[in-house]
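Blinded run. Sample ID left blank on purpose so nobody reads anything into the name before looking at the predicted structure. Input follows.
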Amino acid sequence: MTLPSWENKELGAKVRAALWLETEVGVGGIFTKAQLRQAFPENTQIDRRVRELRDHGWQIDTSRDDVALKQEEQKYVAKGAEIWIPGQASLPKHKSGLSTAQRQKVLSDDGYLCRTCGVGVAEKFIDGPGGSKQLGVARRKVVLADGTVEHQLETACSRCINATGDEVDLGALLSQVGALSSMEKDIFAGWIDADRRTRGSLEVLWGQFRTLPAAARQTIRDAVASSGQ
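Blinded prediction complete.
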């Protein structure tokens, strides 16, 4: 079947982007944002249209996904739905858009913090270029204890939003919670209430012990041994 031309401006920008990847880049090919913008100079949102292809099953890796890629490079890994064919462009139900109220509730429930890296809106990236963090909403696949699947919403920053795809096995996590001792559950409950993990005095002491020279570590070891007798 002959593909439509990606240069046909009567087609939507997302369809044209998909066709450009298929015909100009090819599976396994690498392209840059500069090349993408050169091909679509009239569309200032073409980067976003390419990202949206992931919602249709297309795999397009960045340097976050493939360490062999440079920061400005992307790799067309696999084709998804052939969205240029009528009826193929509809999104799965869990990919449908959110209202402003729904988005705001997710951000509020998550304390306006990225659930992956824990940094708040407009805070600077500290590990390199990338500007300020902007918060968005990602969908996470969650397998419930009864085996059913839900796509639940969580807050993610502009850098982490494409890295939140790991499936959550809620049943397995609940089993781990059930295996905790009463003391461990109390500690865990405190972390949950505070929405942060606090280090106890024993952990602080361990951290200090690990930094000691061998002779000093032996002194502490002897002290612990003698106090336990």
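Unblinding after everyone has recorded impressions. The helical segments are 13-25, 33-39, 46-52, 100-109, 170-178, 182-194, 201-210, 214-227.
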